[in-house]
Amino acid sequence: MGLTSDDLASGLSMLVLWLLIAGLIVAFSIARARRHGSTTLALDVTRNASYAFVLLAGAGAVMFGISTLSSPSVSLDGTTSSWVVDQQDSVTPLAHGGVVDDVPFGPRLVIYLGTLLGIAASAAIAWAIYNATRRAGEREPFHRSVSKTFGVVAFVVMVGAVVGELLKQIGMTLAARSLEWPAGLEPPFELSIPLWPFAVAVGLFALSAIFRYGARLQNETEQLRHETDGLI
Q1: How far apart are CA 15 and CA 221, in angstroms?
Q2: I need a labelling partner for 7 at 20 to 30 A (CA). Which of 128, 131, 154, 187 fits?
Q3: Longest Cα–Cα distance in the chain
């Protein structure tokens, strides 16, 4: 999940829009925290920002689904786009600047599913952060759900991001191959597996273990306090 644009001006406009949204979330969180006399300003800002990200990710998934599944045009990216642009003189003029027209529904569906998995992986991380900050704000930083959520999200990120990227590459290749290429000339499929999901998953697993250990220490401390109170 990221911001992509073929034009510098539109790319900068999207960046400014995202920064404005982030600024509004931070300003709203600070104003609300001060109004309620909150002493956990950082937690409030992080909780609201992560929750807003989940909502924006959901809205983005719906909008991208509508635009991808309803329009027969597909904007290629990565190595597939470069290959098609280099070879577009050899194909029926349906590819211009990496954009392929009249793409069948199947490849567009595969591209959407891959993108959806990538969005879900990003939203899952935001949801884990939201759950942790919410529990901390409720004075239950080591609640059982925190460690469980981090563990589940680690699997979601590792599988969702990798499989999602693979599906996108397959969909892009199928879209490019839907053009009328001369005999013997066909867009190749190049596999590229991102490594960052594995690094993020390791970090999330570590957080899960840390919070689980913290919950055990908290339970032991409470049990010891109850036993000590019984002796007094």
Answers
A1: 48
A2: 187
A3: 90
Query: Can you list the alpha helix ranges (DSSP code H) found in 40-195?
Result: 41-70, 78-87, 105-137, 144-177
User: What DSSP character marks residue 74?
Assistant: E
SS percent in the chain: helix, strand, coil, step 5: 75, 5, 20
d(CA 143, CA 134): 10
Angle of helix 105-137 relative to helix 41-70, nearest 10 degrees, comes to 170
Sheet holding 99-100, edge to edge: 74-75, 99-100, 95-96
And the tokens for 191? Answer: 């596999």
Q: Which two tokens stand for residue 18?
A: 């995202």
DSSP per position, 141-160: TT-HHHHHHHHHHHHHHHHH
Write the pLDDT tens digit of every residue in 56-108: 899 999 999 999 999 888 888 878 888 877 777 766 555 566 788 888 999 99
Could you tell me if 60 and 112 are in contact, meaning their C-beta atoms sit under 8 angstroms apart?
A: no
pLDDT in tens, 50-64: 998 899 899 999 999
CA separation for the pair 78, 111 (Å, rounded)? 13
pTM: 0.82
> Which residue carries 């049990």 as its tokens?
223
Matching residue, tokens 């959806």: 116
User: Residue 193's pLDDT band (boundaries 50, 70, 90)?
Assistant: confident
CA–CA separation, 124 and 168 (whole Å): 19
Task: Report residue 207 as tokens.
Answer: 């957080």
